[in-house]
């Protein structure tokens, strides 16, 4: 199991801090570095080539609706060519409240939209000329950029999105899940060889209940996003705090092993808590590699 570190690329975090966080991860022998789109934050793809260390990098995830697949393919291959390590492109349709409510983009048929998006995107990333006419996209173009084809993961939570992922992507990126959901829900719906990346909040701490209460307050809105709420319900979780891995070193180490045994190929750790707890978390996470 690859263990990566999720870097918060919000607008409140400077590029210098992102580089420092990445350098700390490199020193701790983390396998990979990941970012996602934060409200008002840095572009997750653009910051990746600036990160030090030459580790594999990835997005978990960038939304599809605001960007045409030809544009995203162009940006992705550019980043792949500039990055020292291999790139994994994680994409997803995001949520109706964000796309329609904040961006003003109609959130129409996300599963069908994602299927068409991948049918255009993947051949472009392979260097092929694409002639395509569908419900959402009409394309007749190719790219001349010479770069290795990146792996593509999809934020797929529901059965239809997992079917699209199985057919057209290299795997999925999941969040707010526990090991039983991986083993009993994700693995059976994805084919052999598919990557299962899971973003997990982790805190090595002597005060796990305090951390859970803080996460419950901070991420309360997650309960109101239908895809996330459905995923929590499938896993029997009351809220996002139930997906948190928190406790002393031995407890966290056992939980990381459970994710590996459930079938996770990429565990993307978002370490939370006080600075001293974050350092403890990195120590435990890297000792599990």
UniProtKB/TrEMBL annotation:
Q: What are the UniProt keywords, alphabetically? A: Oxidoreductase
Q: Where is the Luciferase-like domain?
A: 53-277
Q: Which InterPro entries match?
A: F420-G6PD/mer, Lucif-like_OxRdtase_MSMEG_4879, Luciferase-like_dom, Luciferase-like_sf
Pfam families recorded? Bac_luciferase
* Membrane listed as a keyword: no
This one is known as: LLM class F420-dependent oxidoreductase
Organism phylogeny: Bacteria, Bacillati, Actinomycetota, Actinomycetes, Pseudonocardiales
Q: Which GO terms describe its molecular function?
A: oxidoreductase activity, acting on paired donors, with incorporation or reduction of molecular oxygen
Instruction: Say yes or no: keyword Oxidoreductase present.
Output: yes
Sequence intervals crossing the membrane: none
Q: Which residues form a coiled coil?
A: none
SUPFAM superfamilies linked:
Bacterial luciferase-like
